[in-house]
Amino acid sequence: MMEIARWIILVVAAVTAIGGLCADWFIPFGARQHLKNPAWMPHAKFHNAQAILMGFGQGVLAIGLLVFIPLGVGNIVLAALISSIYWAALMVAPMFPGTAWVDPEFAEATPTPLGLHPQQLIGYILLCLLAIAVLSALAT
After folding, report:
1. Helices vs strands, H then E, count in the chain
2. Residue 1 pLDDT level (bands cut at 50, 70, 90)
3. Cα separation of 101 and 23, whole Å?
4. For residue 18, which of 29, 41, 56, 85 sits 20 to 30 Å off, Cα-Cα?
């Protein structure tokens, strides 16, 4: 069970490390809405880049804990916690005034699978995977 938990968290950590960069810079649909959006002010792009780099750092740190340090329940829980911070912050960010899952000009073109915005759905899935990994490690 511990090895399965490790692999689940490694996958989530990898998505955390490169997901923001891919979604907000390389994937055209996301890039148009974020870093390559000419309507965005430079300071908004700065904070988007900051979020990308924080996700990268958290993902790499979690991967390092799972690959370079002897595997134990403590490492599993810590790596899951580190990976979850990015996604938990994403979930509560809409509570701040003036924020939205998507800018109005992209609202119609943005799919909402299961009634959720894509990053919201991805966040819920990844947080659930982390919870499953931790629970399985604790059950060992």
Report:
1. 5, 0
2. confident
3. 14
4. 41
- What span, in angstroms and rounded, lies between the C-alpha atoms of 131 and 129? 5
Distance CA 4, CA 66 (A): 12
| 78-125: pLDDT as tens digits | 999 999 999 999 999 999 999 999 999 999 999 999 999 999 999 999
Q: What share of the chain is helix, strand, coil (3-state, %, to 5)?
A: 75, 0, 25
Structure-block tokens of residue 11: 């996958």
Q: Hey, what are 87's tokens? A: 């996604």
Query: So what's the pLDDT on residue 103?
Result: 92
Sign of the C-alpha dihedral computed for residues 25, 128, 79 and 9 taken in this order:
negative
Is pTM beyond 0.90? Reply is yes
For residue 137, count CB atoms less than 10 angstroms from its CB and return exposed for 0-12, middle for 13-18, buried for 19 or more. buried
